[in-house]
């Protein structure tokens, strides 16, 4: 399972919408349920799902789903 597909599964759970399809270029503006409060829930759920923690600067620098995937993959590589 790819990082993007795992992230999509987490997003579907957090946003309670099985129809969500994430692409690397997806942003919060593309998903009606994705607001500032649910963003925090998403980050916490991703941390739990992937067994990692994100710093405030890392979270603040995320421009789209692709950047989130890249961050997760980088952290997975660094942890290996």
UniProtKB/TrEMBL annotation:
Highest rank taxon of the organism: Bacteria
SUPFAM superfamilies from the UniProt entry: ACP-like (SSF47336)
Protein name per its UniProtKB record: Acyl carrier protein
The organism of origin for this protein: Methylobacterium dankookense
Organismal lineage: Bacteria, Pseudomonadati, Pseudomonadota, Alphaproteobacteria, Hyphomicrobiales
Gene that encodes it: acpP_2
């Amino acid at each position: 399972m790819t990082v993007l597909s795992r992230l999509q599964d987490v997003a579907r759970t957090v946003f309670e919408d099985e129809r969500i399809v994430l692409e690397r270029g997806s942003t919060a503006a593309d998903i009606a349920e994705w607001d500032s409060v649910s963003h925090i829930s998403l980050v916490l759920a991703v941390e739990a799902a992937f067994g990692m923690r994100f710093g405030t600067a890392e979270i603040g620098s995320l421009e789209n789903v692709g950047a989130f995937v890249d961050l997760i993959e980088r952290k997975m590589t660094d942890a290996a």
